[in-house]
Amino acid sequence: RPTCDGTVTFLPASDNKKLEKKRGPGKVGIIVALVIFAAILALIIGLLVWHFHFRKDLKSQRIYTGSLRITNQAFVDAYENPDSAEFKDLANQVMAQLKSMYSESPQLSKYYVGSKVQAFRYVCIVNLSLTALDTRLFSKTRSEYSAEEIITSPGFPDKPYAPNSFVQWQLRGDPGHMLKLSFDTFNLEEDCSNDFVRVYDSLVAMDKHLMEEECGFYSPSNPLTFISSRNVMLVTLVTNEEGNFPGFRARVTQIKLACGGKLSGTSGSFKSPNFPSYYPPNTTCQWDIEVPDGKYVKLRFPKFMVSTGSLNHCSGDYVQIVGKSTLCGQQLANTMVTVNSNKMTVVFKSDSSQVDRGFSATYEIFEPTDPCPDKFQCDNKRCVNPSLRCDGWNDCGDSTDERSCKCDASMIQCRNGICKPMLWRCDGVNDCGDDTDELNCGCKTGEFKCNDNQCVSEMKKCDRNRDCKDGSDEDGCSREICKDSTFMCGNGKCITKPNPMCDGQDDCDDGSDESNCNCGKRAYTKSRIVGGQEADVGEFPWQVSLHVKNTAHVCGASIISERWLVTAAHCVQDDPKIKYSQPGTWEAYLGLHTQKEKQKATKKLLKQIIPHKNYNSHTYDNDIALMELDSPVTFSATIRPICLPTATDVFPAGETVSISGWGATREGGSGATVLQKANVRIINSTVCDELMNGQITSRMTCAGVLSGGVDACQGDSGGPMSILSNERMYLAGVVSWGDGCARRDKPGIYTNMPKFRAWIKEKTGV
Ligand code: 4AZ
Q1: Where are the active-site residues found (predicted)?
Q2: Is the pLDDT of residue 585 over 70?
Q3: Would you say the CB of residue 664 lies under 6 angstroms from ligand 1?
């Protein structure tokens, strides 16, 4: 874009003395100076006049699109073809008429440059509507295609798309057909205000026909497809000056699409057109369900994503269960509607713009007298498995499965009749809702309180027996054999130096403090089986706490070498207030145990941050980033690297892994002070993809406890998922995302490290 700014820089004189005034000017000198001054003034005035009056390219340019109704012409098929003589003739007439209309108006004529007719179509159109387009929508190249084509962004797949470009594809199929656009590759810049693709349900770029604007990356396993409501579609690609990506490839096919119909039997299913991809605009489908006489119908929506419209209240697209309710927006999985009749009518309606992925629905019958055979009936009419009653989780959605419970020994009996896992007793959080789980939490005098809140006799502390279930009665005990020492060498000799392991100095005579100092080893070998508790000092020596300078812990990270940390890309994305992508924003605490004792840890500043270039902020795909420390760290007992898995490693489902971090100890809760650890299991990716509604890519690994209760949470992001293999700990994953925390059937999602082994090597040499 041309700029009107001008700056003048005065260069320093090479020899100031030469410029010194020697004597005053004579008469001739004054006249010459005046003539030169007048000439310069005239030149400046001339330039200004030219600049503001004649330089058309400096004027701000706008393109308006709109439609006109032609009332005195019969529509002929040739008008559909922009190359036909009939099209050209009518287009010329329209352009001439527009030109004469604008030139008659003194206000408009000075702004009007020209018009171009893009298409004619036979249907009623609004009288005249004009919409200002994005100022970048200046067509530099333009192509027209008919249906049954492959369209690609310019340069694809050999080179990235060009900067500052606008390309559009007008797609036209045979009358009576719809067009289906399926992207098999879609990889654009993340930020839609820079580069974007828009898909319109018309041949011209009008907002009211905009189906969707897309940017970023879509994996082929979650492909984007769009369907138009008629035989035309417009695809536009707009790019700005920076950040050019590979682009897209899409197939255009002609289809005929029918939806709705009559459904019968005792159960069945149906879905919105093109589900699980985008439904077409301007579409109405009606399903008439009729089940055997005397039975009632129950309808469930496993998935439901329907655009709400600008006014909300289902003013855009909606699903109506006639006589019962109208649904739109995003609904919880398995939202249910019942009718006390053997007939149900379901209508789906989409308006002219803004589409979404739609819904899937299943229906089944129920007996009016026994609505939940062999199941528990919630107050909201849902039926849940009886085994889910009184398990501490709200399975009904209205908590009625957790009322009036008799709890078993593994649960706390709350006074209000609900049960909560014993694990949550005396943890400072009111889980019961009436504080029952937080009463009587102290131990009697003469008793020791274990880390898991169990009380054991004080006499049992440091008696070399693990009396607390978590062994915490034997933590931190000094042993006679190395009294007041922190380290016993391989030959049994005690040394008093704190953390002598792997600090680069031979402290033990036998060198045992400096042997095995490479990755994945702990200085302190003790470890426990846990379900969310404090880690031991040095148990995760690769764990890092990333703070925004002088504020608080934000994310975790893992040490992989003296210079490099691995974290999550989503931890280093800028927001309007904080430049998380800048190394200067951060300080990294290595060897930290409790956030209260930062002074005991090693603080490092960062030299650079390398987020993965294909990180997708919508899908969290490729959620990984590298951080280089500004100076190498010296390893010690509490600061050590974790081993990286090789590219071919697979972590089988069912394998136990450890997660650690200072994140929230409850969904929506606050962060932990002392480093927490938990053991979870790897979950099969196909199962996980099902549970997470198809959002899992091959760059993600799932781990968790499907019954809920153990998980990573907000603030653990970027931290390690560590796995033991051949007596070393390996970085199996990086904490990435999840649907809340520790919910039933909602595993934690981790970045799948083997997929990034080569990338780490390339970027760091590690
Ligand atoms: C987070 O917001 C986050 N339950 C991290 C992990 C999980 C959820 C949220 C997994 O950083």
Answers
A1: 570 (charge relay system), 623 (charge relay system), 717 (charge relay system)
A2: yes
A3: no
For residues 76-102, one letter each, b for 16 or more C-beta atoms within 10 angstroms of the residue's C-beta and e for the rest, the string is eeebbebeeeebeebbeebeeebeeeb
Residue 169 tokens read as 């594809």
Catalytic residue (one of 209, 547, 570, 612): 570
Q: Choosing from 623, 636, 660, 736, which is the catalytic residue?
A: 623
Distance of CA 311 to the CA centre of its chain: 26
b or e along 498-531 (b: 16 or more beta carbons within 10 Å of the residue's beta carbon)? Answer: ebbbbbeeebbeeebbbeebebbbbbeeebbebe
Which domains does the chain show, CATH number per domain? 64-132 (no CATH), 137-255 (2.60.120.290), 261-366 (2.60.120.290), 533-764 (2.40.10.10)
Angstrom distances, CA of residue 636 to CA of 502, 505, 524, 660:
5, 10, 11, 19
Helices (H) and strands (E) in the chain, counts: 5, 43
Taking the CA of residue 570 as reference, the ligand 1 atom at the shortest distance is 11
Residue minimizing CA distance to atom 11 of ligand 1: 714
Q: Which of 512, 545, 660, 717 is catalytic?
A: 717
Tokens of 446: 């003469």
| pLDDT tens for each residue of 327-378 | 998 887 778 899 999 999 999 999 998 899 999 999 999 998 888 888 999 9
The token pair at 465 is 């027996």
Cβ of 623 closer than 6 Å to ligand 1, yes or no, is: no
The number of C-alpha atoms within 13 Å of 97 and in the hemisphere containing its C-beta is 10
Q: Strand (E) positions, 373-500? A: 376-377, 383-384, 411-413, 419-421, 447-449, 455-457, 487-488, 494-495
Sequence-ordered list of residues with C-beta below 8 angstroms from that of 648, at least 6 positions apart, any chain: 754
Q: What does the chain come to in residues?
A: 766
| Choice from 657, 711, 735 to test ligand 1 binding pocket (greatest atom count within 8 A of CB) | 735
Q: Is 410 annotated as a binding residue?
A: no
CB distance 716 to ligand 1 below 6 Å: yes
Q: Report how far ligand 1's centroid is from the alpha carbon of 658 (Å).
A: 15
End-to-end CA distance of the chain: 43
Among residues 255, 131, 105, which one has the least CA distance to residue 204? 131
Q: Is 351 annotated as a binding residue?
A: yes
Q: Where are the alpha helices (DSSP H) in 565-710?
A: 685-691
C-alpha 521/C-alpha 724 separation (Å) is 10
**pTM of the entire structure?**
0.54
Task: Give the angle 286-289-294 at the CA atoms, nearest 5°.
Answer: 155
Q: How many CB atoms lie within 10 A of CB 707?
A: 14
* Residue 717 known to be catalytic: yes
Q: Is 570 considered catalytic here?
A: yes
Sign (positive/negative) of CA torsion 558, 561, 562, 567?
negative
Q: Is 42 helix (H, G, I), strand (E, B) or coil?
A: helix
Amino acid code (one letter) for 459:
M
Cα–Cα distance measured from residue 90 to residue 180, given in angstroms and rounded to the nearest whole number: 30
Are 658 and 522 in contact, with CB atoms under 8 Å apart?
no
pLDDT digits (tens, 9 = 90+) for 296-323: 999 999 889 998 876 667 889 999 999 9
760 touches ligand 1 (CB under 6 Å): no
- Ligand 1 atom index nearest CA of 741: 4
- The answer on whether 228 is annotated among ligand-binding residues is no
Residues near 725 by beta carbon (within 8 Å), at least 6 away in sequence: none
Computed on alpha carbons and rounded to an integer, the radius of gyration of the chain in Å comes to 35
For the cut 60, the answer to whether the pLDDT of residue 124 exceeds it is no
Task: Read off the pLDDT band of 621 (50, 70, 90).
Answer: very high
Nearest C-alpha neighbor of 365 from the set 271, 440, 260, 295 = 295
User: What is the structure's pLDDT at 718?
Assistant: 98
Distance 735 CA to ligand 1 centre (A): 7
* Residue the block writes with tokens 């050209």: 88
Residue from 573, 692, 717 to probe ligand 1 pocket by mutation (most atoms less than 8 Å from CB): 717
Q: Which residues pair with 289 in a beta bridge?
A: 263, 344
Backbone angles phi, psi at 559, to 5 degrees: -80, 130
User: In degrees, to the nearest 5, what angle opens at C-alpha 672 toward C-alphas 666 and 676?
Assistant: 90
